[in-house]
Amino acid sequence: MSYYFAMIGTKDNPIYELEIGTYKQSGDGTPKFPTEMKELNPFIVHSALDIVEEVQWKNNQLYLKTIDSFYGYQVSAYVTPGNVKFMLLHDVKAEESIRQFFIEINDLYVKMLLSPFYNFNESIKSGSFDMRVRLLAKKYL
Amino acid sequence: MEARSYDRGGLSIIEGMILKDIKGPSSLISKQIVISAFCPKIAVSCTEHSKVVAGAFGFSTVLELFRYFESSAVVTSKLDVRFVKPIHDVLEEQKNVEGQLRLHSILGSGAAHGNSFSGGDKSFGLPSELFNMRSLETLANDVIKDVDSELRELLASEQRDSEKVIDLQNSIYTKYFTKLVSSTAPSPYETFNHPILQLFVASADDDALSLKRLISDWKSLELPNWIDKDEILPLAIIIVNKNVADDLQRGLRLQETLKLDMGIKSSLLSVSVPGIGDDDVVEETATKLATVHKPIFDTVDEELNRVHFSRPTVEIPLKSKRSVETFLQEIIQNVMVPFMRRKIKLWTDEVVAPRKSLAGRLFGAGRKWGNAGSSSLFSMGDNKKGSPQPQTMSSYNETEGYYYAKSPDFLIRRLGDWSFMLRDYKDSYTTYELLKKDFLNDKAWCHLSSLQEFMLISLLIGASNRITPLDVAGSGNGITPKIIHDLINPMVDSIYYSYFSRSNLKTYTLRSVIVLAELFIALSQSTVSSSTVTEIYCGQAIRLLRKIVDGNIVDSTFKGKLMERIAYVYGCYYRAVVEASPPQKPTPDPENGDDQPIANVLKTHYKNTDHLGETRHRKSALWLLMACRQLDPIIKPVQVKVLLDEIDVQIAQGEGDPADHMWLYRENQLLSKLKTSVS
Fold first, then answer.
1. Counted domains in chain B
2. Chain B: closest CA distance from residue A52 (Å)
3. Of the candidates B248, B315, B239, which has an alpha carbon nearest to the alpha carbon of residue B273?
4. What is the domain range of residue B481?
5. Is there a contact between B663 and A14 if contact means CB atoms under 8 Å apart?
């Protein structure tokens, strides 16, 4: 099982990206996307933004569940109150754990926003943020 | 190019109404192609002398001459017709093209019983496909090569003519789509390619004997059981040269002889034949010339061979052009259409009305119960299942998988097809519906698929005809989401399964699914009021196109073009709505005391959210990228270049500045790789 996680800002700009594999079922955390899929990942997530923009008006929840699919891969989304989108491309359906993952990521992101050294919509380069996201991915995905 | 050639058929009006898009032509054009392709066919046979007349105009046969008038006939008579070779010749050609005509049994039992090539009788088997898939693939590559050579020049020039680039690019898909529906191969599942008129063309130089021989040869032809020669109306035509003084007299004499000896009705076609006749008249006719255009619907093999219609236009004397046009118009309006209407009325009274009546339903039920196979009480010990005798109780030959041409079921099918060709879609739908259960009971899967295919086409064309693209009020067309879910989707799945999975009929699968997808796109484009409905239609079209893409039915070139088409459909999402009401930022009016806007960079940027979530340009970009990968930048660099430019346009439509989209252009990603390979 492989995951591509992206946090997309309000201008369609990625503020954080991570490709990670599962640690469950004796996985070592290495993403195993096929080559032809790997080079398409950002575009699949980018195209799913069309659906996010549609669904976010119909749903008052922040977690939008699985919103799109592409040849066996699914895209789950979470929209923060500031309209930053958390997008996760995955091949296995695990709604509850993805929801938990997104909620925790949102907590992390809010803490990041509180930092005086971070501006809204800028890319996140913090090493500790990256490490914590990886830990959350290990825990939930 | 192809897109240009449609201007003659009145399609320029449609083209004027719609926006040009680089990713594909409007589906309104595709819809017009579907309507024009499934039109009455007129077979043409000619004598050697009449070939000389055709030769004087620069054509090899009279058929070829008439085919250059197909477009004119459309304009003048408002009903499309196509001129085809005699049905026997077409069947023979099919046999030769395929190497050997394999018996195609729906149940797969025919080949197992060693019945190959029996095909119901005589020397014909059931034709397997509408056209050769390999030829289509070759043609697809040839078309792209031709277009690319022109595109290369256009792209290299400093002042890029984007309109021409769009036209050229769109012509590729239009051509593919035209080829899908332009097969003239007769099919046992439908009667669109069974000719309605058979013309026997002779010249005044012919004697009655040669024309008689031509007609008697045709009458004595042995055709498969699924073709009914009696339903083809024979008509003799005698061409007389206006430039020759006594030609008319000879023509009239020949007409009289035919009538008296054989009881054959004939018509005189009086034309000025260039180069033959009195010198003064010949010179006069040679000075005033008019242009006739190559037919739109030439088949895949004709296009590939490029023998018959190598010339896009031919110049013939103006007088002759007018004479032939008027003559063909008269034939269509005064002979063919009345004949079709008469037959439709007759079959409705004889076959459909009894079926619909209460008594008919009771007897129909009795017939079914009494003919329930060998286990039936009445048929015990007399099992004729699979026998090619038309006298059996069932009109369906299970062994070889066809209905006898004279059977009530096939008559009703023909009735539906003829109503369809006369553009009475409501009538054709109700007629087709009568047969559904019978085909299902007979397990005639291909017949059922074909029936369902045309039921849906009738339904969708009928629905899209109800409102015009300019109908902003949009009163609805009757195709509701419930109809799509409960009626259309199960039928489409059934069609796909029967054609592709059960029978491996790739060309039929391709035709049915793509035609239906195009009609859905046409529906979405004609519905400008309701964005929800537009979304449903577009979604349905994408679902259908993806069926073909995912099914690996076509080669990579065609698949790439279908992906481009999917991108086009995504591009169409809500386009009508967005363009009907462009976002307007409220502007201050100084006359009313409003202050002039102050440039304040810290002020919140105005963002129009009216149509947020109503577009699919990002999806469109993804599918264009997929198309680029499928087309391969090494083999088709020009095509990929054009599409990559379009991807840039689609990405730029998103939120933010170009700098915000740079993540999509990273070096290790597909877009960047493709750009590097084409540059």
1. 2
2. 7
3. B239
4. 399-577
5. yes
